[in-house]
Amino acid sequence: MILKVENVVKEFKFERGFFKQEAGVVRALDDVSFEVEEFSSLGIVGESGSGKTTLAKIIMELIPATSGKVVFDAERITNFRKDAQIIFQNPYNSLDPKMRIINTLSEPLLIHGIVPKKHFRDKAVELLRMVGLDESLLQRYPIEFSGGQRQRICIARALATEPKFILLDEPISSLDLTIQAEMLDLFLELKAKLKLTYIFISHNLAVIRHIADSVIVMESGKIVERGLKDAIFNSPANTYTKLLLEAARG
Ligand SMILES: Nc1ncnc2c1ncn2[C@@H]1O[C@H](COP(=O)(O)OP(=O)(O)O)[C@@H](O)[C@H]1O
Ligand SMILES: [Mg+2]
User: Fold this and answer.
1) Do 22 and 12 touch, CB atoms closer than 8 A?
2) Residues near 48 by Cβ (< 8 Å), separated by ≥ 6?
3) Is residue 56 lining ligand 1, measured as CB closer than 6 Å?
4) Would you say the CB of residue 132 lies under 6 angstroms from ligand 1?
5) Where are the alpha helices (H) located in 60-100, listed in sequence order?
6) What domains does the chain contain, in order, with CATH numbers?
7) Listed residue (11, 1, 17) closest to 68, CA to CA
8) What are the tens digits of pLDDT across the range 198-231?
9) Which of 102, 158, 180, 249 is deepest in the core (most CB within 10 A)?
């Protein structure tokens, strides 16, 4: 077990109307609990608005939970900012447009003291190669790249800290269909090579089927089904899961 989510609840308050006369709360997460095994890939699937990104942000400590907690195994995750990384859906917003790729990749090397400064360039080249890019890109800016290339750079930057756990929130959903499959293969290859643990979030069951060992199905902030991938895909117990599967078959 590398990480445990315990009874996490997240409520967002909202106000409506000119005089803010209407107020209420949305419960984006409702008593969510699960564990993630080291070196596994947990797929989280659910329709838009089911609470997946809210859960991702709470796990990565980007927003607080209303109640409940997330506990990382202190023996495996010793330095949270280094050992746990996140990849977001949109690689267009994730990179600083004013930074050359070499600097984007050197920053985490410096912050976490991964290698001495004189080795930054070699390490950056190694990181680019890991994600299928080459060193000719080092001096260039994000604007010069396609969505797929930008996402590869985001992955390289995440790998720079030598993480053990990566949370991927819809990492291929904004990319062209033609490159989604090769990106999935890259995620699988990196996971095996670097002995990573993944939480992989997607609204797309075919993607989850490709990448996950076990699966959690979310609906309206609740976990409605969980289990090993084959069990979920071959004999879903929950009505909502069945509907998702049917919708995916078209
Ligand atoms: N900052 C926020 N303020 C208010 N409501 C929010 C906020 N973030 C998310 N929500 C609401 O929480 C629910 C879950 O959203 P989200 O976690 O983004 O779902 P998903 O990633 O599965 O599409 C939605 O109803 C959404 O409108
Ligand atoms: Mg989302």
Assistant:
1) no
2) 203
3) no
4) no
5) 80-83, 91-94
6) 1-77+164-171+194-250 (3.40.50.300)
7) 11
8) 999 999 999 999 999 999 999 999 999 999 999 9
9) 158
Tens of pLDDT, residue by residue over 71-93, are 999 999 999 999 999 999 987 78
Alpha helices in the chain (DSSP H): 52-59, 80-83, 91-94, 101-111, 120-130, 147-159, 177-194, 205-211, 229-234, 239-249
pTM of the model: 0.95
How far, in Å, is the centroid of ligand 2 from the Cα of 220?
13
Which tokens hold the place of 239? 């009505």
Of ligand 1's atoms, which has the minimum distance to the CA of residue 47?
Answer: 22
DSSP annotation of 244: H
| Cα 49 to averaged position of ligand 1 atoms, centre (Å) | 6
